[in-house]
Each structure stands twice: as structure tokens, then as C-alpha cells.
Amino acid sequence: MVRITTLIENSPGEHHGLSTEHGISFCIEKDGRKIIFDTGQSGAFLGNSAKLAIDLSDAEHVVLSHGHYDHSGGFRSLLPILKDFTLWTGEGFFTPKYGFRKGACDFLGNDFDEAFLKQEGIRHKTASSPLEEISPGVYILADFPRIH
Length: 148
Description:
Blueprint: E1 2-8, E2 25-30, E3 33-37, H1 44-51, E4 61-63, H2 69-72, H3 75-78, E5 86-90, E6 98-101, E7 104-107, H4 114-120, E8 123-127, E9 131-135, E10 138-141
Parallel strand pairs: 3-4, 4-5, 5-8
Antiparallel strand pairs: 1-2, 2-3, 6-7, 9-10
């Protein structure tokens, strides 16, 4: 059985005691294994996981869907609690991302680079084939056209 728990997102929904923010993070559990999918824009998802009694320290994989701050901004705050994991990103994850709005240019990317991963000894894999099995029966999709 697969269980997917939203750790943080934009609206409180039925859980008014949980933090919210512009961003997303999920904990995916299958056969006793955990995967963290995205980390929101801050470390607030960690507080929510504690309130939901979900121990993230044994997560085997962290998957960051793309290099925008609202999906990868909480990654650094996760590092002190993880024991042994693989970080998965797609091609172009570290390419700088910018948004242009009302005449202003804003940086929308993540706050770490490949040098940081190497310095911290983080095992990193780039999902480059269309279908990557990251855990028995768990796959990530990559190499598809993005329009956003």
C-alpha cells in the first residue's frame, strides 16, 4: 500500500494547526520505505511532519521536482535529520531560474548548487531516462517537455 501525506502546501485545509506556505512537500510511504517529494520554500514542513507524527529521519530518497525555491527551499533544513539518502533531481535543476513581474526580475531558484552537495557528501542522482525506479515499485518520470 502507498500512503502520501501532504507535509506543507498553500492552504490549511482541515488541519488548522499546521503551517502553510507557498510551496509543496509530500512524504510518500511504500512497504516501510519513505520518500520526501519536494521540501516547500522553508523548513516549515518539518514542524508539520512532527505534528503529524511522521519521522522523516529514515527517508531513503529526496526527490526535488524542479529547481524553484517553493519546491526546494526547505532542502537544507532537512539535512541535519536525514541519516542516509539519495537526492534525485532532473536535468537542468541547477540552471538559474528567474521570474519577471511588474518590471522586476526575481530569482526563483534554489539556494544550493552541485558544489554544496559535493561538500556535504550528499549522494545525488540526475533522473535522465523517461522512467527511473528509485525504490522497488516506485518510479519517477523525467525527460518530458515542460511548459512552465
